[in-house]
Amino acid sequence: MNLTLQLLMEEGTQALLKAGVEEASLDSRYLLLEAFHTDMTHFLLDRNKRLPEEDSILESLSVYRSMIGKRSLRIPLHQITGSREFMGLDFEVNEHVLIPRQDTETLVELVLKDYKGKMPKILDLCTGSGCIAISLAKLGGFDRVTAADISEEALLVAERNAGKHLGEGRITLVKSDLFEAFKNQRTFDVIVSNPPYIPTKIIEGLQPEVRDHEPMLALDGKEDGLYFYRILALESRSHMVLGGAVYFEIGYDQGEAVSGLLKDAGFGQIRVVPDAAGLDRVVCARKQ
User: What pTM, to 2 d.p., does this model score?
Assistant: First the structure.
């Protein structure tokens, strides 16, 4: 077998370039490391060595080429590998959950900072993979965290992630269409959410990885992208203690609109917080 890791990476890169994948070289290398169970250091040391014809190598070769085939179909990288790092934790992901983005870490970091040394009762709506709720419970030590989602498939993913990072019983998972399952609960100190916020007409123009492979339930914010924020703004107050806070992830151009919805609903201390790139990413407010 006259193959090396370097040649295989170049083979994968060319296939992904042909398929229109933007970061073809980066993705082919990532998949190569995954398939051959190696890391960047060993890749750099061994990349020009001829691969031996061993069963384990042949199996890794088959896995790698299969992964490249899937990526060429514009299946998201992290759906292929089945995992995504978020807040330093490794989360299982699949086609039933939104892949966690680094932008969302801004929301988690804010809550961790604002509630350091406290033990708030937290509700995470539209939890998906559970990355927000689980990160808060794990990194903040919060022991009263409830995570809800309308999707049973998403909740199964969140349950596995919670088991991996927290153990059984550390957070409560609930199937709910926003507040539907919490009609009689008015005791949360913090409500967080990364709801669907992309306007329907914008979705068609998104990259195929997002448009065709991530769950529409987690993307579609209806006509103007604000549908779910209207519900969150109107209904959050009745499920919170006085002085409780909301933290909502937003699109980069939605800060003013979501702030206005919260103001109209009677919230105060409203602020819009940018992400690491300087784009508006989270709107926070308090019940007063």
Answer: 0.94
